Amino acid sequence: MMAHMMGLYDEPFALMKSGRKTVEVRLNDSKRQKLQVGDQINFIKAPVQDERLNVVITALKTYPTFRDLYEDIELKKLGKEQASLNKLINETYMIYSEEQENEFGVLAIDVERVE
């Protein structure tokens, strides 16, 4: 088992802390390709970095695009049950570029909180 560190902005951090968000979405870049089921992730609240949240990875699933991921994953697990698919994709492209998506593909990381 390995421990990994990742930043999360306020809203997704709060959703994950409350248990409403159980899937984290990332590019499947070289850092994320090292993740394995059973590993722990220490999420640090960004940008202030004053709070941490530990989770264990329960499943990993790769997709070619964010659209494919969002069409497959129940939006409730992302804490985004009210969002439209297009709004979610547009929000994601404010963080990641389509070039990055094409280069790496994307990853759904199912997690469970660890106390």
Topology:
Layout: E1 3-9, H1 10-18, E2 23-27, E3 40-46, E4 52-63, H2 66-72, H3 85-92, H4 98-104, E5 106-113
Helix pairs in contact: 2-3
Structure description:
Residues 6-115 form the ASCH domain. This is ASCH domain-containing protein. This protein is α+β, with helices and mostly antiparallel strands and 115 residues long. It has one domain: Archaeosine Trna-guanine Transglycosylase, Chain: A, domain 4 (Roll). The protein is 27% helix and 34% strand. It has a five-stranded mixed β-sheet with strand order 1-3-4-5-2. A hairpin with a 5-residue loop joins strand 3 (40-46) and strand 4. Helix 2 (66-72) packs across helix 3 (85-92). The chain is globular, with a radius of gyration of 13 Å.
Indicate the mean pLDDT: 95
**Terminal-residue CA separation:** 17 Å
H/E series, N to C?
A: EHEEEHHHE
Q: Rough shape?
A: globular
Strand content bin:
25-35%
Brief characterization of the structure:
This protein has 115 residues and is an alpha+beta fold. 27% of the residues lie in helices and 34% in strands. Strand 3 (40-46) and strand 4 form a beta hairpin.
